[in-house]
């Protein structure tokens, strides 16, 4: 196997490929709620956001062919040489590895602990897609534009349904979500063959800073979600998206909805690709909540960046608690 496409820290000494361990689950029964967008049941959606902060989304109207093409294309892009990837994704896009934490300009914020996450990724702010000039990326760009339109439609529909159950004034709360300004992260998690090393993670435990996030994953698996102090495997199901509540929605909902903790396990034998969309409030929108001091997403993001630089981790919403 050639490691030419891997960032240098992932070019492992040991080339031992282990048998697939993706069946080793923490909880074998699957309790993760499923929401059907075509027959949207508001009570089920509300329950899923309160009790899990995460759900599977089916009948979302995104053609399966588009999801498959995106996955295939992402795999192809990641397989090109590391050095080429570094030159292909330039501002306002970025290519990163070892950590998902990026500065607003897209550079990696490696923390002081020296721990690296077993992941590489592309950061793609959707409003800037038209700036992609490269021939190599032109067909990927077309797919991303189509996908971005679907994601904007899904997020508006989901947000409005949530807002209804939370009794938020529809007009007033509209700008809590800026669905056409979302950003995409396309990830590849290299396989990690060192079975002795339990400390390696694709992504460490975290909450998302978004209003919510929408994930499309391949069939390898590895995403885990925390619920009542237990970790659950979020098993991949074809044509099913995963939606998770982020910090902004937790604040908007006065803590009724949970910005759920999740993490990504490394796989001992297979690479994994996932595509995650993050949607945020409109620029300058002040989030008002009985539980938190008023803040904008920019205030929040600046605090997160500061904490990662100084403490090595994100403190998150607790920084803004009102009491
Ligand atoms: O790749 C995944 O399954 C999850 C990605 C994720 O949690 C994130 O980007 O915040
Ligand atoms: Fe996440």
From TrEMBL:
The gene is LOC107411433. Pfam families: 2OG-FeII_Oxy, DIOX_N. Belongs to the iron/ascorbate-dependent oxidoreductase family. Keywords: Iron, Metal-binding, Oxidoreductase. Residues 179-281 form the Fe2OG dioxygenase domain. Transmembrane segments: none annotated. InterPro entries: DIOX_N (IPR026992), IPNS-like_FE2OG_OXY (IPR044861), IPNS-like_sf (IPR027443), Iron_ascorbate_oxido_reductase (IPR050231), Oxoglu/Fe-dep_dioxygenase_dom (IPR005123). It comes from the Eukaryota. This is Gibberellin 2-beta-dioxygenase 8. PANTHER family: 2-OXOGLUTARATE (2OG) AND FE(II)-DEPENDENT OXYGENASE SUPERFAMILY PROTEIN-RELATED. PROSITE patterns: FE2OG_OXY (PS51471).
């Amino acid at each position: 196997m050639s490691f030419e496409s891997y960032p240098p820290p992932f070019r492992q000494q040991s080339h031992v490929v282990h048998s697939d361990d993706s069946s080793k689950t923490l909880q074998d029964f699957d309790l993760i709620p499923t929401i059907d967008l075509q027959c949207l049941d508001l009570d089920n959606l509300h329950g899923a956001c309160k009790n899990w902060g995460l759900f599977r989304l089916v009948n979302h109207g995104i053609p399966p062919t588009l999801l498959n093409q995106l996955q295939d294309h992402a795999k192809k892009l990641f397989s090109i040489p590391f050095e080429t990837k570094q030159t292909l994704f330039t501002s306002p896009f970025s290519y990163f590895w070892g950590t998902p934490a990026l500065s607003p300009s897209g550079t990696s914020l490696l923390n002081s602990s020296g721990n690296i996450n077993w992941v590489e990724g592309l950061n793609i702010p959707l409003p800037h897609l038209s700036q992609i000039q490269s021939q190599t990326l032109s067909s990927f760009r077309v797919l991303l534009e189509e996908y971005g339109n679907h994601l904007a439609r899904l997020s508006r529909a989901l947000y409005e349904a949530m807002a209804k159950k939370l009794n938020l004034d529809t007009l007033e709360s509209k700008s809590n979500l800026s669905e056409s300004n979302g950003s995409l992260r396309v990830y590849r998690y290299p396989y990690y063959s060192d079975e002795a090393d339990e400390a390696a993670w694709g992504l460490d435990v975290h909450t998302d800073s978004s209003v919510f996030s929408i994930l499309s994953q391949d069939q390898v698996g590895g995403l885990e979600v925390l619920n009542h102090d237990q970790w659950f495997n979020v098993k991949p199901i074809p044509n099913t998206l995963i939606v998770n509540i982020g910090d902004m929605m937790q604040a908007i909902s006065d803590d009724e909805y949970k910005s759920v903790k999740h993490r990504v396990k490394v796989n001992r034998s297979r690479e994994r690709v996932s595509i995650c969309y993050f949607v945020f409030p409109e620029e300058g929108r002040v989030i008002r909540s009985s539980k938190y001091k008023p803040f904008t997403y920019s205030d929040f993001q600046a605090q997160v960046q500061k904490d990662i630089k100084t403490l090595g981790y994100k403190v998150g919403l607790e920084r803004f608690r009102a009491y």
